[in-house]
Design brief:
Elements (H helix, E strand, L loop, with lengths): L4 E2 L20 H14 L4 E3 L9 E5 L11 H8 L2 E23 L2 E19 L5 E7 H14 L10 H15 L9 E2 L7
Parallel strand pairs: 1-7
Antiparallel strand pairs: 2-3, 3-4, 4-5, 5-6
Length: 195
């Protein structure tokens, strides 16, 4: 089932997600719905808060990046086959050079900005069958994980840009909160109350 994606300004996007236990109601269904929602919106990642659930769960499928001709064949292959579910993830380490990449977010349609993140991460998480993993990722895979991980920590990519850039996108963010943005996927907007 395709779920509405929660728009910028909704308080759920600012909450730190709570841990998921194995008895979480309909967890497999929630995960399946999240994948369907992400694919419908042409995303490469989706976190539970983006569908209104304040839990530590996110999904990633980087295959759309595998067509990038600026990447090496090896990087394209890694991206093509990378599809994972992350439950109760904890980034243990971020290391390496910071590098910029133009990021966007399904909860913040029509806004893209360069965000700087470290190139390598070590992350501990559970998969959808509650098997525990500790893995090291780098490059674009690490970046997508960092972006989605921020969501379960109540952080948005717009928090990581300069004050000047924030000022420049202020009107776009306002339009999202007021439901004036119309992406080609289902969204739930927080109607802004008058001041």
């Amino acid at each position: 089932m395709i779920l509405p994606i929660v728009g910028y300004g909704d308080p759920v996007l600012r909450k730190k997600g709570v841990d998921v236990n194995q008895n979480h109601p309909n967890l497999k269904e929630v995960i399946a719905n999240m994948y369907e929602t992400m694919y419908n919106a042409y995303g490469v990642g989706l976190a539970a808060p983006q569908v209104g659930l304040s839990i530590r769960l996110f999904i990633i499928d980087t295959s759309p990046f595998s067509d990038d001709e600026d990447l090496s064949k090896e990087e394209q292959e890694q991206l093509k086959d990378f599809k994972k579910t992350f439950i109760n993830a904890v980034i243990l380490k971020e290391e390496g050079e910071e590098w910029g990449f133009n990021e966007g977010c399904l909860s913040i349609p029509d806004v893209r900005e360069d965000v700087y993140r470290q190139e390598r991460i070590t992350i501990e998480y559970y998969d959808e069958d509650f098997n525990k993993h500790t893995d090291v990722y780098d490059g674009l895979i690490a970046r997508v994980i960092q972006h989605e991980y921020d969501h379960i920590e109540g952080i948005l990519f717009t928090d990581k840009i300069s004050s000047l850039k924030k000022t420049l996108i202020k009107k776009k963010l306002q339009n999202i909160m007021e439901g004036k943005t119309r992406p080609d996927y289902k969204m739930k907007f927080v109607a802004k109350k008058g001041r």
